[in-house]
Structure formats: C-alpha cells, structure tokens
Design brief:
The protein has 180 residues and is mostly helical. The protein folds into 2 domains: 73 residues, Serine Threonine Protein Phosphatase 5, Tetratricopeptide repeat (Alpha Horseshoe), CATH 1.25.40; 87 residues, no CATH class. It starts with 7 loop residues before the first helix and ends in a 12-residue tail after the last helix.
C-alpha cells in the first residue's frame, strides 16, 4: 500500500489494536480490503501475511512474507517479518528452515527488542527439533539480555555452560550459539 495514502498506518494500527478477542476472519477481511490493489507494496504484503497468520491460515502467509522481505521493508518491519515468517514455517512443520532463518538474522541484523523475540521463537523451534539444551541456552541468552539485575552472573554462567558444551563435543560438531 502506498505509504503516502492518508491514514494507511492509522487504519492498520486501529485494526490490530482491536484484533484480540475479535473474529480472526473479520480481521483478515479488513486487512485484505485495505491491501487490495497494493500487493506489490512490501508493507501491504507484510500486513496481509500477518493477517493470514492471525486467522490461522499459515499456508497462505508464507508467500506474502517473502514478498515483503524481498520488497525492501524498513528495518523494524523487516525484523518483524523475519520472526513472523520463521514462526509460520515452524507452524507449517518446517522447523529446520525456521531455525536457519532465525540463526541467519541473529547473526546479522537483529537488535532489541527483536533479538530477544527472535531468540524466543528460535528456542521454541529448537525444542521442536529435539535440541533441548541449545533451546535452553538460546532462551537464556534472550532472558539475559533483558535482565536489569543479574545479567552479569547469568552471562557468566551461560559462558560456563557453552564452553563446557564446546569441550564435550568433537570440533566439527560444536553448537552454534549466538552471543550477541
């Protein structure tokens, strides 16, 4: 959707502000009506994908997320789209692809508050993949980064845990742990 169009962001914000507790299909219909004719706009694709997810239609959400990401979203929406696409892929049973997407983003561009959110979704995805220990480390990293108290000790304990993991595994199978 053209960002110069009057009230575009306000209309979207109003829909999402009142979405909880409403019929998901109604929310989806409202978003679809707003983006109709603007499918090439990355922000419109992002909003449509989110509406599909909200309505439980993850199978329809993937393509608009990918259009949004390839279309050049601003950094904030880009980070949200990566996290939401990864969640969609996880829900579609493609946890490995979701984890790869989140690892790549964590290694490159994610910043607060999205880095902690990405770690939370990555931890869930790692649990799906049966990698419980790495899931716990990723979750604790996200928690550590949000702690106002005890961040130092939690960080040191995490360093101890991850260095023990590295010492216990063959060199070619070391865990990929984001320390950002």
């Amino acid at each position: 959707m053209n960002s110069a169009e009057p009230n575009w962001h306000e209309k979207v914000a109003e829909i999402w502000a009142t979405a909880q507790g409403r019929d998901p299909d109604e929310v989806l219909a409202q978003i679809e009506a707003l983006v109709a004719g603007h499918e090439r706009d990355p922000l419109a694709a992002f909003e449509l994908a989110g509406a599909y997810d909200f309505a439980g239609q993850e199978d329809r959400a993937e393509a608009p997320y990918r259009r949004a990401l390839s279309g050049g979203l601003d950094p904030e929406h880009h980070q949200q789209a990566v996290i939401q696409l990864a969640s969609t892929l996880r829900n579609l049973g493609r946890a490995t692809e979701a984890a790869d997407l989140l690892w790549a983003e964590l290694d490159s561009t994610l910043v607060a508050p999205y880095a902690a959110s990405a770690r939370a979704f990555l931890a869930l995805t790692l649990l799906d993949l049966g990698d419980d220990r790495r899931a716990a480390v990723v979750a604790l990293e996200g928690l550590r980064d949000s702690l106002s108290e005890y961040a130092g000790p939690v960080g040191r304990y995490l360093d101890d845990v991850t260095s023990t993991d590295v010492d216990d595994e063959p060199e070619d199978e070391q865990p990929q742990v984001f320390n950002g």
